[in-house]
UniProtKB/TrEMBL annotation:
Organism lineage: Eukaryota, Fungi, Dikarya, Ascomycota, Pezizomycotina
Region (Disordered) location: 1-31
Keywords: FAD, Flavoprotein, Monooxygenase, Oxidoreductase
Annotated protein name in UniProt: FAD-binding domain-containing protein
Membership in a protein family: Belongs to the paxM FAD-dependent monooxygenase family.
Species name: Thyridium curvatum
Domain FAD-binding: 90-408
Length: 535
């Protein structure tokens, strides 16, 4: 709880993260020395990523004859064969889900090409929580985790106030589980670290290329970009919340519903708080800080990342006008200040310091959990937000993407591309109930904070805590997949019942829909609404 994990003194390029306590390396950590090269240090903040040449089977989308087929000289594999890749995957999207899955597949000896629509790595985004269930996955990636710790926040406590600044709760926050840290990272910085590591182990990238279609054949699946068809053994679609692949997989366009809320979000240099005596002390903090202010239907968060000297402010508010679900939609500072009028002067002063061009208004849209992540032939699977978008109050959007990656890596490692369809269907079975619950948890936390039962809080302030339970944070997704492989494969092939063990003890899965949650939206928070205990 109390300590940041220890690192050994020297870091060779073949080193991976060593947790301070708790679990050992997974039994099946089969990282080959040639692949475990450690991420290079982040040296060039303006790194521009150039597309790499394709090495997969590339055909004209109009003609059936291959334009060219080339092969990649692979580093040593984990299957004992130094020359031949074990199979080829296309990963669509270089967000956390795509990068993590690409690395996990590569670690297991597969050839991987990532196709990303953005030309350069974006610097959009602010803070993202990377729980220990995610850093456990990252711990196998050279010294990526060590660098991530150096650049991330790890607040040791969280204070909650009512809007006037009266303290409601002051609770410790775990900084690690079994030695794997809980991080609050700058999304762009961490993404670059992971990207550089992926490149260093031989994952190929094509940036600035938007996939416009997916296809499946008996012996493979692929994507269409421009007039190129690229085919591989399997496709992992990590194309985010507006996923095109989701439509291909479930056969219909899933329309998101407005949740009635949007979030003003901003991230800016800490020194901008120095001008106001109310916020100046925050600029002198040596430790990371996490503060939350609550009122009916609105909450604000002030986060100080001391190491990288940044401030993050969120203000989740009733969404009274049509804004897009976009990371670039400008926010109206005056409107945010209107919403917080009369609040604790500290949060108001911090909001006044927000540079107008650094505020976005991010609409919170809902999507029902979808049960089907894998296409009919079983060669295309969704991962990350494409499969299970989370609300920010879950703090699990990124972490579940990393868990997806660890799970897929383990399953494809054991089953090979020969049984790709079984592997992907097993992935869906292992993951659906868990992510359905973590998705719901985001709604639950927000509901606790927005429709607060103040009598209940007076009796038990812990009611407001953000849930960080052991079943969720102290979880090894890769190991779980290896451990349950035979059972889940039996279930996929023969329909035998499969009981998830990656849920809270005694939890019985229930499907839920946005409609069901909206019905509860107006009711005051009651314990029985919630499926995830906040302890
Ligand atoms: C710009 C941006 C900023 C974000 N900032 C934050 C933040 O500050 N805090 C937070 O908690 N969460 C943030 N998120 C969301 C968060 O990253 C995800 O919820 C989580 O990490 C899971 O990521 P993902 O890889 O599934 O999806 P994403 O991170 O959304 O990545 C999906 C990727 O797929 C690419 N893509 C989409 N369609 C195609 C296509 N047809 N062809 C090729 N590529 C395609 C996109 O360009 C994108 O890079 C942000 C997402 C984005 C895209």
């Amino acid at each position: 709880m109390e300590d940041v994990p220890q690192f050994s003194a020297s870091h060779s390029r073949t080193q991976s993260y060593t947790p301070a306590s708790g679990t050992d390396s997974p039994k099946h950590a089969i990282l080959s020395p040639a692949l475990d090269q450690g991420a290079p240090r982040l040296t060039d903040p303006d790194l521009v990523l150039q597309p790499d040449p394709a090495t997969f089977i590339v055909q004209s989308a109009k003609k059936s004859a291959p334009l060219h087929t080339s092969s990649l000289a692979m580093p040593a594999n984990t299957n004992g064969n130094d020359q031949k890749p074990r199979g080829r995957f296309i990963v669509v999207g270089a967000g956390y889900a795509g990068l993590a899955t690409a690395i996990e597949l590569r670690r297991k000896g597969f050839e991987v090409q990532v196709v990303e629509a953005a030309k350069n790595m974006t610097t959009q985004g602010d803070i993202i929580q990377v729980g220990s269930n995610a850093t456990r996955v990252m711990s196998h990636w050279g010294n990526v985790l060590e660098q991530a710790v150096a650049e991330s926040a790890q607040p040791k406590d969280m204070k909650m106030f009512d809007k006037t600044g009266r303290v409601l709760l002051h609770a410790p926050l775990p900084t690690e589980f079994s030695g794997f840290p809980v991080l609050y990272s700058n999304r762009g910085l961490l993404q670059r670290l992971i990207l550089e590591y992926a490149r260093s182990i031989g994952v190929e990238f094509r940036f600035g290329e938007r996939v416009r279609e997916y296809f499946e054949e008996k012996d493979g699946a692929g994507i269409v970009i421009g007039d190129e068809r690229i085919k591989a053994d399997g496709v992992v679609a990590a194309d985010g919340i507006h996923s095109l692949a989701r439509k291909h997989v479930i056969g219909i366009q899933q329309h998101p519903r407005t949740s009635g809320f949007a979030v003003y979000r901003t991230c800016f240099p800490l020194d901008l708080l120095a001008d106001d005596p109310l916020t100046k002390p925050l600029t002198e903090l040596k430790e990371d800080m996490f503060r939350v202010w609550l009122d009916t239907d609105v909450h604000a968060i002030l986060f100080i990342l001391a190491k990288v000297r940044q401030v993050v402010i969120f203000c989740t508010h009733k969404d009274t006008y049509e804004v897009e679900e976009s990371w670039t939609n400008p926010g109206d500072l005056d409107d945010m200040l209107k919403i917080s009028k009369g609040w604790d002067p500290v949060i108001v002063a911090a909001m006044k310091a927000v540079p107008r061009d650094k505020l976005i208004d991010w609409k919170l849209l809902w999507r029902d959990p979808i049960r089907q992540w894998v296409s009919s032939t079983g060669r295309i699977t969704l991962v990350g937000d494409a499969a299970h978008p989370h609300l920010p109050t879950s703090g699990q959007g990124a972490a579940q993407a990393f868990e997806d990656a660890g799970t897929i890596g383990a399953l494809v490692d054991k089953l090979g591309v020969e049984e790709i369809s079984t592997a992907f269907k097993a992935f869906e079975k292992l993951r659906y109930e868990r992510t359905s619950l973590t998705q719901r948890m985001g709604w639950e936390t927000r509901h606790r904070w927005h429709q607060t039962d103040w009598d209940m809080v007076a009796a038990n302030p812990e009611f407001l805590k953000m849930p960080q339970p052991m079943w969720l944070y102290d979880f090894d997704a890769e190991q779980y997949a290896y451990d349950r492989l035979d059972e889940v494969v039996d279930s996929v092939k023969n329909g035998t019942p499969f009981v998830s063990k990656n849920l809270p003890e005694g939890h019985v899965h229930e499907d839920w829909t946005v409609e069901m949650m909206m019905d509860l939206e107006k009711e005051q928070a009651k314990e029985h609404f919630y499926r995830v205990a906040n302890k």
